[in-house]
Design brief:
heterodimer; A: 105 residues; alpha+beta; Mth169, Chain: A; three-stranded antiparallel β-sheet; elongated; B: 233 residues; alpha/beta; Rossmann fold; nine-stranded mixed β-sheet; two-stranded antiparallel ribbon; 5 helices; 11 strands; 23% helix; 24% strand; globular
Chain lengths: 105, 233
């Protein structure tokens, strides 16, 4: 079955995040004075084939451990979506469809 | 000193390293393709600077799994000399051959400038020709050179004498103003416990001729020659 895993990778709380601080400064200069902290991270969507949910999760956890996150500086969180008939069809149409490569209807 | 210079897709300082080793120092050097798996003929492996695999995901994260890296890891574990410069340093950390990680510069700016480095450890394979406290003038060129390690790891690195270089002022004082990227402890380069693997953010290969503005970087490569001679004796 096709599974879709969302992997959120963020810097550990003890790690300084210059990008987050810069974004916070930008928000302050726009007048969003209520912002007290911004942390920047990465969002990855992994589509994979697996027999069941536990196998899919185990595989994505292993991918995250080996490559997607660096445990020296990063934390990660995985959210696994249930198998969906749409999961395999989210491919940009070859023609571009006049809408800048939108999803297939 | 038979030198191998690893070339990944996106490596950009390979020719500068070849020029320094081969043309300036007269030592044989060859390029090592990222798919190569044999390094038996080599005494020194250099992982040069650049943007291997576009720096995608994290600097060095993809390069670390290139076939050549398994051979480099074996080579390092056998005591072979390995020097990672800039992106090469990042790759060595991703490969866990060196501790810590390199974060985005605290300024969020790409810094390309000459810096002063204080030699903290003159027993590593790449600083044998230096004396402790000596100041080298070598350029940096990076956006992600902000050395980080957790407190425990940092203390261990310091205690074991694995800090090789620190950013400093011209007189050797280690000051916040002389830190170009926010590195913990002004750390610019470290060694593994054995001293045969060194990673550094500054580019010694770009400081090997007076014509280029300085030749302090030669000490790094000459040290490797002497480290090999020492082993041979």
């Amino acid at each position: 079955m096709t599974y879709r895993a969302e992997v959120f990778v963020t810097l550990k709380p003890v790690v300084n995040d210059p990008a987050g601080l810069t974004i916070k400064g930008g928000l302050h200069s726009l007048g969003f004075d209520s912002v007290t902290d911004v942390r920047a991270g990465k969002y990855l969507v992994v589509t994979l084939e697996a027999d069941d949910e536990s196998q899919a999760r185990a595989r994505v956890e292993e991918m995250t451990r080996q490559l997607l996150a660096n445990a020296v500086i990063e934390d990660s969180r995985i959210e696994l979506a249930s198998p969906s008939p749409l999961a395999g069809s989210q491919i940009p149409s070859p023609s571009g469809g006049g809408q800048g490569g939108g999803l297939r209807a | 000193m038979n030198t191998g210079i690893v070339v990944f897709p996106g490596t950009w300082s390979d020719r500068d390293c070849d020029h320094a080793v081969n043309e300036v120092l007269g030592q044989p050097a060859r390029y090592l393709d990222h798919r190569e798996e044999r390094l038996d003929d080599l005494d020194l492996v250099i992982l040069p600077g650049g943007f291997s695999y576009g720096d995608y995901l994290r600097c060095g994260a993809i390069a670390r799994f290139a076939p050549v890296m398994e051979a480099v890891t074996d080579f390092a574990n056998r005591g072979g000399l390995v020097l990672g410069i800039c992106n090469g340093f990042q790759i060595l950390q991703e490969a866990r051959l060196l501790p810590g990680a390199l974060l985005r510069n605290a300024s969020c700016e790409f810094r390309c400038e000459w810096v002063n480095l204080r030699v903290e450890q003159s027993e590593s394979a790449f600083t044998l020709d230096c004396r402790p406290g000596q100041v080298l003038r070598i350029p940096i060129s990076h956006g992600e050179g902000n050395f980080f390690a957790d407190t425990e790891t940092l203390q261990a690195i310091e205690r074991n004498g694995q800090v090789v270089f620190r950013y400093c002022a011209t007189d050797g004082r280690v000051t916040p103003e002389s830190n170009p990227n926010g590195s913990l402890g002004n750390i610019a380069g470290i060694a593994n416990a054995r001293g045969n693997v060194v990673g550094m953010m500054p580019h010694p290969e770009r400081a090997c001729e007076d014509l280029l503005g300085g030749s302090d970087g030669l000490a790094v490569f000459r040290s490797a020659i002497h480290a090999l001679a020492r082993v041979a004796v």
